[in-house]
């Protein structure tokens, strides 16, 4: 059973990260690019919605690529927690305006102690650094 968890955990984390990034980018593009559903009022950077939209758009893009997943997940979970307590209906989906929650604050606290999954850029970078360290350590130990 542990082998099953060890095999599937990085893959499931990658899927969760990618789907969450798309959800965040959808809200950010709605606020800044008026896609897929235009907002009734334009967004300015000096507004609370403008700052949230910029965090959602940029943070979602970083999560999608898997760059700095832990700090980005920390900032975005704080954004979702603030949105939840500041305006309880802020988690509505884009088009249908139903009171279903997307689970943002809990969902983005999950990657904090974990890594971004198997396909994250930072995991590949860490693996390459470990390989270089092992190669250098073998050279030193051979002397």
Helix content: 55-70%
- Tell me the β content: under 5%
Low-pLDDT runs of 5+ residues are: 93-102
H/E element sequence: HHHHH
Quick recap of the structure?
The protein contains five helices and no strands. The protein has helices at 2-33, 48-65, 69-86, 104-109, 121-142. Helix 1 packs antiparallel against helix 2 and helix 2 runs antiparallel to helix 3.
Describe this structure in words.
The protein has helices at residues 2-33, 48-65, 69-86, 104-109, 121-142. With 143 residues, the protein is an all-alpha fold. The protein has one domain (2-142). Helix 1 runs antiparallel to helix 2 (48-65) and helix 2 (48-65) runs antiparallel to helix 3. The longest helix is centred in the N-terminal third of the chain and has 32 residues, at 2-33. The protein is elongated. The model is unreliable at 93-102 (pLDDT under 50).
Task: Write the SSE topology.
Elements: H1 2-33, H2 48-65, H3 69-86, H4 104-109, H5 121-142
Helix pairs in contact: 1-2, 2-3
Throw out a few tags for this protein:
0% strand; mainly alpha; 143 residues; single chain
């Amino acid at each position: 059973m542990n082998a099953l968890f060890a095999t599937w955990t990085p893959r499931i984390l990658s899927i969760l990260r990618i789907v969450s990034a798309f959800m965040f980018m959808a809200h950010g593009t709605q606020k800044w690019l008026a896609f897929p559903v235009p907002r009734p009022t334009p967004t300015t950077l000096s507004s609370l919605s403008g700052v949230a939209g910029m965090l959602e758009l940029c943070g979602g893009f970083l999560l999608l690529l898997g760059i700095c997943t832990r700090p980005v997940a920390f900032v975005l979970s704080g954004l979702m927690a603030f949105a939840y307590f500041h305006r309880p209906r802020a988690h509505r989906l884009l088009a249908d305006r139903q009171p279903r929650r997307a689970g943002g604050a809990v969902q983005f606290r999950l990657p904090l102690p974990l890594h971004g999954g198997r396909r994250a850029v930072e995991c590949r970078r860490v693996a390459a650094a470990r390989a270089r360290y092992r190669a250098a350590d073998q050279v030193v130990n051979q002397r």
